[in-house]
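hey all, quick one before standup. I had two proteins in the batch that finished overnight and I want to keep them in one place so we stop losing track of which output belongs to which input. First protein below, input sequence then structure tokens straight from the run.
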Amino acid sequence: MADSTQNGPMPGGAGGGAVQFLMANKLDTAMWISRLFTVYCSALFVLPLLGLHEAASFYQRALLANALTSALRLHQRLPHFQLSRAFLAQALLEDSCHYLLYSLIFVNSYPVTMSIFPVLLFSLLHAATYTKKVLDARSSNSLPFLRNLLEKLSANQQNILKFIACNEIFLMPATVFMLFSGQGSLLQPFIYYRFLTLRYSSRRNPYCRTLFTELRIVVEHLIMKPSCPVFVRRLCLSSISFISRLAPTVA
């Protein structure tokens, strides 16, 4: 990897180093392209410039592209597939496996704008990181405007990850609402609950646990005010207790 990220231009023009870097890291490059395609499709769903009918197809394409990216990343993390319980348990610890499951949950469901934001933002963050590596391989001072945009995105990474975690949490009641409104399947809330427990237990991304804790503190602070009706306080405390019992144990 260090050999690929050279600062000076390579023979064959200013882009020679970038091309060499991309060819030397084919799997990472494939994930970069699929992430850029995910961002493109997600943007055209959120902003339906080509019409509402086309927006629904871009929703599916974004989730399928994200599933491809997640599968490639999972293969990169666990290259030797084994049909065993131990391998499955190890795979479920990986964030890429979580979002492979996420894509499969929503790809054939009624399009929900909230469900596309985690896919869009994760793809944007990872694509931005790899784009900086490509720019460094091309030249240390190439495309300063794009570099500034990438730096601003990186500076707001923590806020973006918190926003993603918030989406992950509030999609749980959204799947239940979709079920009762006739836009979701009976299994979707149960499968999504499994996804949410995996995100809560994630070793690499603690933001889901952090958001649950912060939301609990905020709700408890509000309901303990004298102006809060007693039945609302009891309902909220019962809900907090119920959700806490559902939370998985984190090692």
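OK second protein, same deal, sequence then tokens:
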Amino acid sequence: MEIDLAKGEARHKEAILKVKEEARVELDIERQKQQELITKYQRDHEELQKKIPGLISSATNSLRMETEILEKKLQDAQVKLAEKDEDKEKEIQSLKRLISELEFQLTMEKNSNESFLDDMRKEIKHKSDELEKISQERTQLIHNLSQVQEENTLLQETVRRECEERYELTAALTQAREQVLELKKLSGNFPLSPCSLAQGSLTSSAALLADYGQKS
């Protein structure tokens, strides 16, 4: 029984260590996943921040180039108007229509760029919200780990008490065996009073067992 008790205690310890190790491994894996997600969102956020100035600069350069082209066309038109008086009014009207169309295109492109910037801002906000959510989930995981550690501590205490109670039971049984053997010896030497001696010894053993039962 002592060997079985030792084996049981070893198995309990091994199981507790296994549970701790599994919990630690799972926590490390989850923590690594969360860190990878955080790193990815941070990298995406930085890339978006880098793209925005480039887009603004590209749009500005495009508008500047188109404006320069328009100015050159206007100068050419003025030269042609000076050279051809008969086509002056026609060319002016044509240029006005062209300018209106280009201004409309510029307005459309400006609105498109503003819409694109708004979409980028919304995407950045969405990524920031997701990052905040991940941070909250990480905090919850840490809280869950603390609860698991507390439960492991309680389990260890329960196993220790069970081992102590089993040890007491083993001692009580051993004492009972010794008393029975002693009663047998006494009944051989004193055949007239075995009942009284047996009654006293068994009463003592029963008291030990009853005490163990109450503890259990």
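Flagging for whoever picks this up: The helical segments are 2-83, 88-189, 194-215. The chain has a mean pLDDT of 80.
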